[in-house]
Amino acid sequence: MTTSPEKQSRGRVLIVDDEKVILDLTAIILKNRGYQIFTALNAREGLATIESERPELVLLDYMMPDMDGLTALKEIRRRFPETYVIMFTGKGSEEIAVELMKAGASDYILKPFNNQDMVERIESVLKLRAVELQNRALLSERERLLAEIAQWNRDLEERVQEKSEALRRAQAEIVQSEKLATLGYLSAGMAHEIRNPLNSIALFVQLIRSGLEDPERLDYVDKILKEVDRIDGILRKLLDAAKRPRFEISEVRVDRILENTLEAFTPQLRQKKIKVVTDFRSIPPAIKADPMEIEQIFTNLFLNSIHVMEEEGTLAVQLDQDDHYINMRVSDTGPGIPPENLPNIFDPFFTTNSRGTGLGLSVVLRIVKTYKGKIEVEKSDSSGTTFSVRLPLTPQ
């Protein structure tokens, strides 16, 4: 291989020809025109030169020993697509010309050639190469930009979806807060209006009771008083769901509240042969709260879980924490909450239990929101339901 000086090079050209006279003559002509020249006497040497020097153009002889020009042309186009090829051929048939162009030649020059014609063809091919490479680069840049825009669109759609979901949750919380506020207003009035006649009923029934001796009638009176107490209990629950009653803040260990509440449910759990699985992954520090309120959260969640499960179900309780929240999960193996009911489960008086008041989860929601926490149904399907409760580690 030989090379000419690189001074003011108009391009890098490799000449591959097994006839040294033509090789040297072509090299002189092109070198005088300002091209940087490389030469090779056979196709294999030429391929090695392309590998190391990466010329823009190759003048390749069609008839060569060992590896012919057509085979070399196909190899060049396969391995070095940015190197263009002009074929030298002494056979001027149209079939050969078509075969060469199909194989990837940019042009072909018949031997013997005219010097000026050869130079003009070389310049034309180099200009074509520059345009095609530029177009290829532009297409590549276009594809890159289109891919980038597509990614931006996907990111934007994800962000819009996230923001829409956050807005939906915020709107749901606002609606829920408005419901609780309305409930508070109504329940305060209802409690006052109902308790006055209720107290009168209880007083008169007790007076009647004091003058009775018939056991059957005394039993009727006791039943009336029990129903009065039941109505009063419903009113108390209604008030608890709507507004915060008297409370006493102290240092509360959530893990101990959980354990004590589970222990209180031991008879019901044994009766239905429900297995309890506790997973206290970490024991969070004490938080400032009213212990009765925290207990109410778990009491209502455990009651719901026990109610919906058949015998030999599983009640799972998980406790963990991160940098900002205590995270609790209560799971059951019940039938799950129907999807159409999920938006309403925290609404006051919404219940599918004929004996329930529909105030339990409303109370839980009110307490959790009082502590600036969060509660949601994390999962609900035929395998069961999981409630997630998050309470801040520090008071807000």
From TrEMBL:
> Coiled-coil segments, which residues?
128-180
Single GO molecular function:
phosphorelay sensor kinase activity
Which class of enzymes does this protein belong to?
A: transferase
* InterPro entries per the UniProt record, alphabetical: CheY-like_superfamily (IPR011006), HATPase_C_sf (IPR036890), HATPase_dom (IPR003594), His_kinase_dom (IPR005467), HisK_dim/P_dom (IPR003661), HisK_dim/P_sf (IPR036097), Sig_transdc_His_kin-like_C (IPR004358), Sig_transdc_resp-reg_receiver (IPR001789)
Reactions catalysed, semicolon-separated, are:
ATP + protein L-histidine = ADP + protein N-phospho-L-histidine
The record's keywords, sorted A to Z, are: Coiled coil, Kinase, Phosphoprotein, Transferase
Q: Which residues carry this modification: 4-aspartylphosphate?
A: 61
Entry-linked Pfam families: HATPase_c (PF02518), HisKA (PF00512), Response_reg (PF00072)
Which superkingdom is the protein from?
Bacteria
EC number, UniProt record: 2.7.13.3
* CDD domains in alphabetical order: HisKA
Give the matching PROSITE patterns.
HIS_KIN (PS50109), RESPONSE_REGULATORY (PS50110)
Q: Where is the Response regulatory domain?
A: 12-126
The Histidine kinase domain covers 189-395
Q: Which PANTHER family match?
A: HYBRID SIGNAL TRANSDUCTION HISTIDINE KINASE C, TWO-COMPONENT HISTIDINE KINASE
Q: What is this protein called?
A: histidine kinase
